[in-house]
Amino acid sequence: MQYIDPHIHMVSRTTDDYERMARMGCVAVSEPAFWAGFDRGSVDGFRDYFRQLTEFEPKRAGWSGLAHFTWLCINAKEAENVELSREVIKMIPEFIDRTGVLGIGEIGLNKNTKNEATIFSEHLELASKIDELILIHTPHLQDKYKGTRMIIDMLKEHSELDPGTVCVDHVEEHTVGLARKNGFWCGMTLYPTTKCTPARAADIIERWGDDRIMVNSAGDWGPSNPLAVPEFIQEMKKRGHSDAKIKKVVYDNPLEFFSQCKRFKFK
């Protein structure tokens, strides 16, 4: 079955991962701007990173026949440096109209601090001003519910934002309802330990339905599995779900969400 991985950090993966994903049916990936494994010290580091995301990674994905799309921001892990964050946000319009850029993301909270909230809000202001899609990172483990509540409260303060243009990612059993009930899209990340397993994601689909929800591997520097979406497909098949229902979650829904961006070109 063909699928799209709507959240994966391919700069941290090998070219072999692209090949393996293609063999399993992946036809496109969406790569949010992320942490480099260390905190960058200057806006020029981010400028080079944005060039990597918009110039090189699409070529590398293309070697395996995959389409590559990306998002731009300074991530929550580095948002404690407010001065640097503002320089990066100011730079985003230089890159936003490049081919394959889907919007602003992944923005959000990491430790739910005041500085993170400030920079999250300033990202939202930029996205609203230039009319872009938004991809949101919610915190890990013990900070997740509180952080998700804070994020949704801040989103609701920006009443000009259409919830249908926002995807709240890394949701699980305790937070999916917060996003769904407020009209946002949801992403479920299939991590080996810290987020959802394929079985838990299937449970959530069975409880909440398959509208405005998708699954991703969020493969990155740490323990993660770039083939997590095919594992979810197999879990859904074992439970007797139809190919049409599975395809909606792993292909049709990401396609529908991304198609709101005028730069999204995919065949």
From TrEMBL:
Gene3D superfamilies of this UniProt entry? Metal-dependent hydrolases
Q: What is this protein called?
A: TatD related DNase
The GO terms describing molecular function are: hydrolase activity, acting on ester bonds; metal ion binding
Assigned protein family: Belongs to the metallo-dependent hydrolases superfamily.
The protein's UniProt keywords, in alphabetical order, are: Hydrolase, Metal-binding
Taxonomy, superkingdom: Bacteria
Looking at the keywords, is GTP-binding present? no
Species whose genome carries this gene? Caulifigura coniformis
